[in-house]
Amino acid sequence: MPEGDTVYRAAGLLDRALSGRTLTRTDFRVPEHATVDLSGGTVLATASRGKHLLTRIRHDTDHWTLHTHLKMEGAWRVYGPRDRWRRPAHQARVVLAAAGVEAVGFSLGIVELVPTSAEDSVVGHLGPDLLGPDWSETEAVRRLAAAPDRVLAEALLDQRNLAGLGTMYTAELCFLLGVHPTARVSDVPDVSRLVRRAQQLLQANIGRATQATTGDLRDPHWVYRRDRRGCRRCRGRIEVSTIGAEPRARVVYACPTCQPRP
Length: 262
Known about the structure:
The chain is an alpha+beta fold.
């Protein structure tokens, strides 16, 4: 599933391509909104909120927000008037066209239209956004510390605590702090340091096409998906386990040498 920095970059792509433009065609290829036509509307902005995308559109006297989520396989792509789509047409869920540009959302996990005044109904549950203007280290620490017995990786992946972390950053963050992802929140000696490092990791990657936590784009990860290669630091065997119950179970990676279980 894309992480917060990937979604942040997608928001920037849509914002640059569409903001201030008048829509000449809209196509919502989901049953709930199949008959909606927002052509003639003006795109005001696109912003990210954690892993959620919010595209705000003024149409006549109404203000709408297109709420999309990439989930596992989704992506937004922007094309010129003569460009051929690089993914199959049957995967398109949303098409927003303006003069000289066409933005296509492929395989989107969520497509919703809500009044802009009601955006909180779709993102109001989220915790502080690691890359957003509402970021608050104090609030993120408070939310994590409110459940000290919770498994650390579960707490970090819970977007209600802090918004933007996914499986990769959670694995790498735990490694860099020397804590096992299946430890409890209370086992972390400095939750504030953990939260600060999380923001630093995402901030460092918002301008990159490839996410890296090692500083080496050719070998970008310490433990994530290194179960066949070993820990990048000690070369020891990587543990792969799952947390949570199906169907929402998540995979976690850890080096038992560098991240001993408590």
